[in-house]
Design goal:
6-stranded mixed β-sheet; 8-stranded mixed β-sheet; Aminopeptidase; Leucine Aminopeptidase, subunit E, domain 1; alpha/beta
Length: about 500
């Protein structure tokens, strides 16, 4: 649950600051102290800057915390709205992080500048405070950490419900990803999805292992057959607003634990593989945000939920399996299971004739080698979609890098015994080969593939201070807002209350 918000249009002053033990002061850019509007404890900040041999503009790069006379802690940060949003959000996260380290029950936020700037700074500050004020699941017997209970905002008033929607959606994705694999088994994950569907009033269908076998979804079943518990499923969730002609399909990889199968991972690389379901959590969080924002298009989420286990029944190298659309696949490496479960899931999603498909997956190690954990990679079926994806990354602060996937890459996936190889053993450009493989199963629909190399970034990323970032939720909201605005007006219904 997010911290409760109270608001005051009055600017934070010394008298108000004295009532709080933890305070964030957000200032507009300036190169001189006297160029700034009046803000609390100005003289104390000036003396600390002098002692630290810092200039006032250094607060734009390095937030500064100051101990107050009454024993409180005040963090000062300077935000330049002309800088990349990623940098703005990172500065705010660092500033708020110094306050949250003390586990406060509440914090005060004071924003400064003209009225429009205060509103913008309030939105950014609240999002960062909300996403970092929650506590991700732990099972420590003694854990003194507590969630943030209250936020007092000074200097701006307004409807910040849409910011809260984004924070809740990001938090949902991170909470699910943080759960240990013995708690988030495929069956328990499906139970959680039913609860969410009931709460959100979404339609839900579950295609379990037996049903998928009967349907001919051999690529998904090949991965799922290694588990003793036949609890794997493709779960279909639907948000259906009235009077819409547009639809979006979100596809998520939900491998609740990945051993690598017969091509067993080493201990180093198997650690953390309970997070291999992050793509499904991001798709789910994004769907929740869109539904709560009353997105004017149908949204279907298709979540491929399974585990990749090692057992006598597990699929093997050189197996040939037949996917749902009839494509035969030569298995080359059992640790390339993500593209297998996504192949059949993309086929199911494409049969609904969506106007756009977006899939999210922690898919390849080669994307980590290409980008590290500060960006995620994206592939697009057409140049305009790729440009839209990059622009959404810049605007949201969740940055993506567009990769090529020209047709000649697919020569590497040619098989002598099947329609296509699942991957290669060489590993060169595997993130690109995986995208070319997946594209076959989109059946020429408009499509974006997001390889979530930024799903876990040590020490946090952008606005998020936890290692698990929830990357992709806010990017997806921004992307789809831009996508739907580019559609002809006749295809869009009138928004309620517009």
């Amino acid at each position: 649950m997010l911290a409760k918000l109270t608001q005051s249009a009055a600017v934070l002053d010394d008298a108000a600051l004295a009532r709080f033990d933890h305070v964030l002061v957000v200032l507009p850019p300036a190169d001189r102290l006297d160029a700034l509007p009046e803000f609390p404890q100005r003289a104390r900040l000036e003396s600390v800057l002098k002692r630290r041999k810092m200039k006032i503009e250094d607060l734009g790069k390095t937030p500064l915390s100051v101990h107050l006379e009454h024993g409180g802690l005040c963090a000062y940060v300077m935000i330049d709205r002309n800088k990349p949003r990623f940098e703005q959000l990172t500065s705010l996260r660092k500033a708020i992080g110094t306050l949250l380290e003390e586990n406060p029950r509440g914090i005060a936020i004071g924003v400064f500048g003209d009225a429009a700037l205060r509103q913008a700074l309030a939105r950014e500050s609240l999002y960062v405070a909300w996403v970092n004020g929650v506590r991700l699941p732990t099972r420590k017997k003694k854990d003194d950490a507590q969630a943030l209970q209250r936020i007092h905002l000074f200097g701006a008033r307004g409807d910040f419900d849409q910011i809260a929607v984004l924070a809740r959606a990001n938090t949902l994705a991170r909470e699910l990803t943080a759960l240990p694999p013995n708690e988030l088994t495929p069956m328990r994950y499906r139970e959680r999805l039913r609860q969410i569907a009931r709460h959100q009033r979404w339609r839900i269908e579950e295609f379990d292992y037996r049903a998928l076998r009967k349907m001919g979804a051999g690529a998904f079943a090949a991965v799922a057959q290694g588990s003793d518990e036949q609890d794997a499923a493709i779960v279909h969730l639907s948000y259906v607003p009235k009077n819409t002609r547009l639809s979006v399909a979100l596809v998520g990889k939900g491998i609740c634990f990945d051993t690598g199968g017969h091509n067993l991972k080493s201990a180093k690389y198997m650690a953390g593989m309970h997070e291999d379901m992050n793509g499904s959590a991001v798709a789910l969080g994004l769907m929740q945000a869109l539904a709560e924002q009353r997105f004017p298009a149908r949204v279907d989420a298709w979540l491929a939920i399974a585990q990749n286990h090692l057992s006598p029944a597990a699929y093997k190298q050189n197996d040939i399996v037949t996917a749902l659309d009839g494509t035969t696949i030569e298995v080359v490496h059992t640790d390339a299971e993500g593209r297998m479960v996504l192949a059949d899931t993309l086929t199911m999603a494409s049969r609904g004739a969506p106007n756009l498909i977006i899939d999210f997956a922690t898919l390849t190690g080669s994307m980590h080698y290409a980008l590290g954990t500060r960006y995620s990679g994206v592939f697009a079926s057409e140049p305009a979609l790729g440009q839209l994806a990059v622009a959404a990354g810049q605007a949201s602060g969740e940055r993506v890098c567009l990769f090529p996937m020209d047709a000649d890459y697919e020569q590497t996936l040619e098989s002598k015994v099947a329609d296509v190889k699942q991957c290669t053993l060489e590993g060169d450009a595997d993130h690109i080969l995986a995208a070319r493989f997946l594209k076959r199963f989109t059946h020429d629909k408009a499509w974006l593939h997001v390889d979530l190399s930024a799903s876990n970034s040590g020490g946090g990323l952008g606005p998020v201070g936890s290692d698990i970032t929830g990357f992709g939720v806010v990017w997806g909201v921004e992307l789809l807002a831009r996508w739907i605005e580019a559609k002809p007006a006749a295809a869009k219904p009138r928004r309620r209350g517009a």
